[in-house]
Amino acid sequence: MTAHARASAFIPADLPEPGFDDLAHLPGMKPARIKMLRTINFLRDPLGMSQKMLEEHGRVVRRQDFGGWGVSLIGPEANELVLFDKDKIFSSSLGWNPVLENLFPHGLMLMDFDEHRIHRKALSVAFKAGPMKHYLGDLNTGIARGIAAWPGAPEFKFYPAIKALTLDLAAASFLGVPWGPDAKKINQAFVDMVLASVSPIRKPLPLTQMRRGMKGREYMSAFFGKEIPKRRGQKGDDIFTQICNTTDDDGVLLTDQAIIDHMNFLMMAAHDTTTSSISSVVHFLGSYPEWQEKIREQIIAVKAKTGGELTYETLADLDIIELVMKESIRLIPPVPSMPRRALKDFVFMNHHIPAGSHVGINPMITHRMADVWPDPERFDPLRFTPENSKGRHKYAWVPFGGGSHMCLGLHFAYMQIKSFFFHLLAENRIELSPNYKSEFNMSPIPKPKDGLPLRIVRL
Ligand code: HEM
Question: CA-CA distance, 205 to 372, in Å (whole number)?
Fold first, then answer.
């Protein structure tokens, strides 16, 4: 099979879409009188509504979202069943397609089984230790420059600032050159694409978010498309050049269209998730400043060891920031839920779920289950020490997913976050206003409702 093949022997040509009647035997929602209203209510408070459903109906819940019927499976066992997918029951492509296909078609997460395995292997070259060391150099330089340009004592909104910075950083690691005069348009194109992917109106009608998102996609596709010929046959340490030259199992280069699709998807997968996680870490560090001190001690030790730099080899020394990050994205997971579609009938917790069902797992809720996470609302990074993690279900903490679709950029994300806090906290303190409490909008990708105003105080 070549990298162009799309069909999968596992996906039936004609898959039914079970409605309320087919799922009536399950606990859960009744049909809404006004479907759109239910969607709007959910988008307003996804955490509250999902928690209420768990309380009322248990871990298998029939639900009506975006107008269609599906089943939410909650808890570590559900996460394992769906993500590990040992019996090849669940299609990621058919799960994510309704959300992402218009904007990010043929992204890695929208592929299944053999096709997915081949493309994942081809893209993996860009995430091996050699290239990763190179990205770290670019990240260190870009982050140090970005932070130095932020205001010091006056309060500023952190979220837009970090969003702009992560986009700049992506220019170096993903593209190898600055975005140049296009930076603003690229940012807007991505914002539009991501917003469109969750907008309730799915057709690109005039003046809709979907129309703006599709325009964003056209813009980005043209941007990458005109660059591909310049990158073919060239050596480069950026992700784009590596993907332009990577091959499938048969030694065949990816097509131009496949490269464009992978680049669009990778940028989307990396940008908002990293922005969201850095924002939640900053929010918790501002609320629990004692953790800033602990992290700073490790930064000082790394600097003493290396002469001031964060090197690839010393990333592992910054394990406190890793604990803080894990706890932050437990409470505010950048991907709060993950959709699939069942290709066969299956049984979970004695409930029969028919083939074709839309099935969702929900890290946002699993990460707050009191039987897995005692006192779940308490911020406590020590939950993640090796000792305290002993005996916890392997799929209790799944911000990066699991199984064959586990986040390909996971190590990149850890590295970027460590580099960011290494530079930020070495000589600065994050300060929130007294009694300030930031609230995060939890869907589709969590972000602070008020932009997270704070001060970066130079030490
Ligand atoms: C904290 C930051 C991030 C989080 C929380 C995150 C989370 C996730 C999750 C949950 C999935 C799996 C979704 C599913 O199975 O339905 C995923 C997939 C993916 N992520 Fe990330 N991600 C992050 C950063 C990144 C970065 C920085 C990159 C690229 C540099 C990236 C690239 C990808 C790719 C390519 C996939 C698809 C993998 C596949 O289908 O095989 N992610 N991510």
Answer: 45
Residue nearest to atom 35 of ligand 1 (CA): 408
Q: What is the reported pTM?
A: 0.94
In the three-class reduction of DSSP (H, G, I as helix; E, B as strand; rest coil), residue 448 is classed as: strand
- Considering only CA atoms, which residue is closest to atom 37 of ligand 1? 109
Coil vs helix vs strand at 176: coil
Determine contact, residues 347/289, Cβ cutoff 8 Å: no
Structure tokens at 445: 């990708």
Q: Answer for the pair 280, 440: CB distance below 8 angstroms, yes or no.
A: yes
Q: What range does the domain containing 318 cover?
A: 20-458
Structure tokens at 405: 């679709």
Is 26 near ligand 1, meaning CB less than 6 Å away?
Answer: no
Q: Does 343 sit in the ligand 1 pocket, CB within 6 Å? A: no
Q: Nearest to residue 224, comparing CAs of 237, 210, 209, 241? A: 241
Q: Judge whether 125 and 247 are in contact, CB under 8 Å.
A: no
For residue 127, the ligand 1 atom closest to its alpha carbon is 30
- Whether residue 85 lies inside any domain: the answer is yes
Structural domains in the chain (count): 1
Question: pLDDT tens digits for 272-285?
Answer: 899 999 999 999 99
Nearest CA to ligand 1 atom 13: 401
Q: How far is the CA of 153 from the centre of ligand 1 (A)?
A: 35
CATH of the domain at 301: 1.10.630.10
> CB under 8 Å to 126, separation ≥6 — which residues?
239, 242, 243, 246
End-to-end CA distance of the chain: 58
Render pLDDT for 73-95 as a digit per residue (tens, 0 to 9): 999 999 999 999 999 999 999 99
- Of 119, 265, 267, 273, which is best to mutate to test ligand 1, by the most ligand atoms within 8 angstroms of its C-beta? 273
**Closest ligand 1 atom number to CA of residue 96:** 16
- What is the C-alpha separation between 99 and 122, in angstroms, rounded? 25
Give domain status of residue 15, yes or no. Answer: no
- Going by C-alpha positions, the residue among 65, 61, 70, 72 that lies closest to residue 27 is 61
pLDDT the model gives residue 32: 87
User: Does residue 1 belong to any structural domain of this protein?
Assistant: no
Q: How far is the CA of 408 from the centre of ligand 1 (A)?
A: 6
Taking the CA of residue 338 as reference, the ligand 1 atom at the shortest distance is 16
For residue range 42-69, list pLDDT tens digits in order: 888 999 999 999 999 999 999 998 768 9
| Position 335 in a domain | yes
Confirm if 432 and 287 have CB atoms less than 8 A apart: yes
Q: How many angstroms separate the alpha carbon of residue 269 from the centre of ligand 1?
A: 6
Whole-angstrom Cα distance, residue 152 to residue 162? Answer: 15
